[in-house]
Structures are given as C-alpha cells and as structure tokens.
Specification:
This protein is an alpha/beta fold and 407 residues long. It has helices spanning 14-26, 48-55, 74-82, 85-88, 104-115, 163-176, 188-191, 199-209, 303-312, 345-348, 373-380, 386-406, and strands at 5-10, 37-41, 63-67, 90-95, 98-100, 121-125, 131-132, 137-138, 148-151, 159-162, 212-216, 221-223, 261-262, 268-269, 293-296, 321-324, 330-336, 356-364.
C-alpha cells in the first residue's frame, strides 16, 4: 500500500505557506501512518520562507526542508520535486497557495493504490475542477455513482504520483521537452503557455499516450490564488468546495466502467454510445458509437483541423460526426437545447432546441443560426442582474486603470 510523502513547493510567500502547513497539520491521518513532510523552497532574496518552515512544528512525522541553493523557477522546481518519487516511492505535491481538506491524505493513499492497477491512469488529482479552465465556463462531471471521474488534464493544484507514474512521464519528457506542442488535439490554451510551465508537458504527455488523471468528485484541495511570480493579483476563481469530513468515501470507478471520462478540452468521451447517450440510428447500421465522433459542446476545438488529421492518420478512425455548439458547414442531423446542467445532460436527455448540433461531416450544409450569445451568458452566470454586471465592468475598468498607472 502506498504511503506518499507530502511534498510542499514554496517560494517567497511565507503567509501562504504557513496557511497550507497549518491545514496539513490539522488534517487526519490513518492510524499508524507517519507521513514525511518535505518542504522544498526555491532560492529567493529573502530568508522569510526558510525561517518560517524551520520554525513550523509538524507532529505527524518527519519534517525535511530542502532549501535550494540557486533559483530554479517553477518548471525545474516541480520536476525536481517529482523526482522525489525515487526516494519515497510515491508523493503528494502541493504548491504553497493551496489548502487541504481533512481527509486529503486518506484519499490520496486510496487513489494511488487503486490507480496502480491501470497504466492508463497517469496521475491522481486532489482538486475538483468546477469550470473549464480553457473556456472559463462551468464544468461539472456527470454523476455515475462513483467518487471519482477521469480527465485528460494534469493537475497542478494538488496531485499525487507513484514512482511508476512519474518515471513514465519523465521518460516521455526527456524525448519531447524541445518539441513543438501545438497540435489540433491539444487545447491552444495549453500549447500557448510559456516555457516556464511544466504542466503543459504533462498534459500533452497524457494526450499522446492516451492516459488520464483520476479526479475526485469532492475536492481535497482548494486554491487561494495568492499573488506570486505567476500571479499578479489574488484570484478566487479557483476556489472550490472541499470535502469536510475526516474520512472520505473512496468508491472508485475504473476507466472501463466510468461514465464520466473527459478529454483535455473537458468534453465527455466514451459515453455517447447507443447504450448510454443515444444519438440515434443515423447511418442505418445500428452501430451509433462515439468512434468517428468529435464532441465540442464548449466550442473550443479546431474541428476542421481535427477532422483532417484524424482522416489522414493511417489506422485512425475516420470522423463521421461532430457534436458542437459552433455553426459548421455540414448537414445537421439533429439539434439540442442548452438548458440542463451539466451541458452534456442536454444530449443525454434529448432536450430540444437550437444551441447544440449533431453534424454529418460527409455531407455539406448551411451553417445553422445558433441561439443568442446573451442567453449563453445567462446560462453560465446564474443570478446575474444588469446592475451587478455594470458594477463588475466598472470594477474591471478601474482595476486596469490603476494597474497601468502604477507602472
């Protein structure tokens, strides 16, 4: 059974680090388990973080402080911390602006033990996404009765790895660290991140090797988004509700049994088969599956480029259908509304409307007239009023003015 070391990544944010360490100290741990706490501190001009870490009392096990002698930067620092799997066998990685739930350690242990049986699981996340980070629209994983879902997106807001999982990534990384990550099957938001990002490489690794992260339905971490070297202002957008009990439910689904598996664009895969979410008998074969189907309910995918690449790749499944929110020049087989939540529920329950379209890409057609953009905004941002919208716009304008004035 895995008993991961807790690895905290810190740099120049002593107050944030103290908040995280206090939550780790207050958490519950399985009886007889004394997890090692490693605090890895990148080099800075101040000794405040090192002094705070040295003075912090950790009562659950051994405390190890690694004060880096040279400034590494986030990418190199995270990669160095990941390599601690060599020493400890498995690790939980927490950046200093996070906060952990009481049962975070119990969940991580159970998830690592479960994922050890499937090489298609590339890591474990302790954070539960509540919006699509590429589109900044709401995201809720479909409820299939289990305590986890799968997403082809690596986590940086609380994650755990076994040595085997990390070694697999590092082998890929050594061969691909200098490659151009731009690809129609990689979100542009990811490939466009700066070279300081380690996360984009892990995400592309998952995509290219067809692996997934195991995610919790109740988050075991939350993110304060404190000001730092990669954040110019405090941002609460990434705050999510956390599990509050000292013990977690850990009833996990496997990748073959889960009805909540998502690609790197936060689009549901593997669940548009006739026995789950029926799209209908459109080609007369009664084999309506998501083989040959591109799902693009958020409207983020470069659909034309994906079709071209898939159809030109030897051995790849040819694309026949596209399910999208975007008006495309193909024959519309069926349309759906955007009323139920999450958005894919509109397909599952066959909600009528003109917001989401199923296309047959082998036949040309006129792009349909989609619903008004304002209606989509009200779908995403519930409870918003014209007065509150004006106040938000005013705040953003003044925020930008004072930010530029300060420069």
């Amino acid at each position: 059974m895995y008993r991961p070391a807790i690895v905290v990544i810190a740099y120049d944010r002593p107050k944030a680090l103290r908040r995280l360490l206090d939550s780790i100290e207050s958490a519950s741990y399985p009886e007889g388990i004394s997890p090692v706490l490693v605090i890895s501190i990148d080099r800075s001009d101040s000794d405040d973080v090192v002094n705070m870490a040295k003075g912090f009392e950790y009562t659950h096990g051994k405390k190890v402080i690694i004060a880096r002698s040279e400034r590494m930067g986030l990418r190199a620092h995270v990669l160095a911390c990941g390599d601690l799997t060599e020493e400890y066998g498995s690790i939980i990685v927490l950046e200093d602006d996070l906060f952990v739930a009481p049962c975070f350690y119990e969940y991580a242990c159970a998830a690592l033990d479960f994922s050890d049986n499937d090489e298609r699981i590339g890591a474990v996340s302790l954070y539960d996404h509540r919006f699509n980070v590429h589109k900044r629209e709401s995201f809720v994983a479909a409820d299939d009765g289990f305590d986890n879902y799968y997403l082809q997106l690596a986590s940086s807001w609380g994650q755990a790895y076994t040595k085997k999982q990390w070694d697999s990534f590092k082998t890929w990384y050594r061969d691909n660290r200098d490659k151009d990550l731009a690809d129609p099957f990689v979100p542009a938001n990811v490939s466009g991140w700066s070279d300081r990002s380690w996360l984009k490489y892990y995400i592309v690794y998952l995509i290219e090797t067809d692996k997934y992260c195991l995610y919790p339905r109740k988050s075991l971490t939350t993110n304060f988004g404190d000001i730092g070297s990669h954040a110019e202002k405090t941002d609460t957008d990434l705050q999510v509700p956390m599990a509050g009990s000292k013990h977690c439910r850990c009833d996990f689904s496997g990748l073959d049994t889960s009805h909540a598996v998502y690609d790197s664009f936060f689009e549901l895969v593997g669940c548009y088969k006739e026995d789950r979410i029926c799209l209908g008998d459109y080609d007369g074969s009664r084999k309506s599956t998501d083989a040959g189907l591109i799902v693009d309910l958020y409207g983020l995918k470069p659909v034309t480029d994906q079709i071209a690449k898939a159809n030109d790749t030897p051995g790849a499944v040819k694309i026949r259908y596209v399910l999208s929110a975007v008006p495309l020049p193909f024959k519309v087989i069926k349309s759906f509304g955007r009323q139920m939540r999450p958005v894919d529920a509109n397909i599952r329950f066959q909600v009528a409307g003109n917001d989401l379209y199923l296309y047959d890409v082998t036949a040309a057609g006129n792009p349909p007239k989609t619903g008004k953009k304002a209606l989509r905004l009200f779908y995403e941002y519930r409870g918003i009023s014209s007065k509150s919208m004006v106040e938000m716009i005013k705040y953003r304008i003044f925020e930008k003015i004072f930010k530029n004035y300060g420069r």
